[in-house]
Write a structure and sequence with these properties.
Layout (H helix, E strand, L loop, with lengths): L1 E4 L11 E5 L7 H17 L3 E7 L2 H5 L11 H10 L4 E6 L2 H4 L3 H12 L2 E7 L12 H11 L2 E5 L11 H9 L3 H8 L3 E8 L4 H4 L5 E5 L9 E8 L5 E9 L10 E6 L10 E11 L7 H19 L10
Parallel strand pairs: 1-4, 2-3, 2-5, 3-4, 5-6
Antiparallel strand pairs: 7-8, 7-12, 8-11, 9-10, 9-12, 10-11
């Protein structure tokens, strides 16, 4: 899959293609239906499928300070888009100037002049242009005048909940990582670099990898979770993951710490991902180290039980 940043990266002589446009944070089931339809249509037309997305999140530019938590990093989003069979991921820098483009200017600049779209596939609630003034009807009319067709894909649901990034963020924020996984179609991930902490875990026999998460990361509610630590070499390791301030030691800084099961090595400075499979318990302040150690032992056993479930073992996602 080709990865373009900005319209200047479109190769000279680029021909017709099928385009889908969206923020696509999380690449949940609903997003995959839309992108999948664009890929299907592109294959039928013998044209490339182009996924257009934005960085940063448009809300941060339109309403500074309102950036929602991020479900997928740019790197992870690119991986997931590639898995869906897209030929190109085009990331458009979302600037104040770009945000002021009218629907007609957006369609002309992006879809017609730069990408030469033959068809545009979007969700039926798609909005675009300054102040989100454009919708499917507007896009269809612009396409009729500019030489591309528009397909609005009905919003998908699981029979009860409509697939949306907002719904996934709410579940993650509440600590319901299993509910979030049901909408995403895979476990929620946190990404970042392993940094040095207070070394208290090592002192009590449970050394942890402290994850410095990326900006705006969708970190679940405080608690203890069963999960996996994924390394860049492709290896995966079961992990009991603690999120919170470590109240037993009167901590004040919220941290993400992973005790990696059956692992003996140095992860400092390494960029890793944590997959969160199940919420085990709430964060509790213990009266002493012995009580804390006893609980951690129970957490490790509970994590092993989660990992032993069908499809729950390391490297299975």
């Amino acid at each position: 899959m080709q990865h373009w940043r900005g319209l200047d990266a479109v190769p000279p002589g680029w021909g017709r293609c099928v385009v889908t446009v969206g923020v696509f944070d999380g690449l949940h089931h609903g997003h995959r239906v839309i992108i999948g339809r664009a890929v299907e249509r592109a294959r039928a037309a013998h044209q490339p499928a182009v996924v257009v997305t934005f960085d940063p999140h448009p809300s941060e530019v339109v309403r500074p300070g309102t950036h929602p938590t991020v479900l997928t990093s740019p790197t992870r989003k690119a991986e997931l888009v590639a898995e869906l069979g897209a030929d190109v991921l085009c990331v458009l820098p979302f600037t104040e100037e770009f945000s002021r483009l009218s629907p007609a200017a957006f369609a002309h600049t992006v879809l017609v002049e730069s990408l030469h779209a033959s068809a545009v596939v979007v969700g039926e609630n798609f909005r675009f242009g300054a102040k989100a003034a454009g919708d499917i009807a507007v896009l269809t009319d612009l396409g009729r005048r500019s030489g591309f067709v528009v397909e609005g894909v009905p919003l998908a649901d699981d029979g009860e909940t409509r697939y949306s990034s907002t719904a996934v963020r709410a579940l993650v924020a509440a600590g319901d990582v299993e509910g979030a996984a049901a909408l995403l179609g895979r476990p929620h991930r946190l990404e970042g670099v392993v940094v040095r902490g207070d070394a208290r875990g090592r002192e009590i026999g449970f050394p942890t990898a402290n994850l410095q998460t990326v900006a705006h990361a969708a970190v679940p509610a405080d608690g203890v979770y069963a999960g996996r630590l994924l390394r860049r070499d492709g290896s995966a390791h079961g992990a009991a993951i603690s999120i919170g301030t470590n109240p037993t030691f009167a901590g004040t800084e919220r941290r993400v710490e992973a005790y990696v099961l059956d692992f003996d090595g140095d992860l400092y400075g390494e960029r890793v991902s944590l997959e969160l499979l199940a919420h085990l318990r709430e964060t509790v302040r213990y009266d002493g180290v012995d009580a804390l150690v006893a609980q951690i032992e129970k957490d490790v056993e509970a994590t092993r039980e989660v990992l032993a479930r069908p499809g729950g073992g390391p490297g299975s996602s």
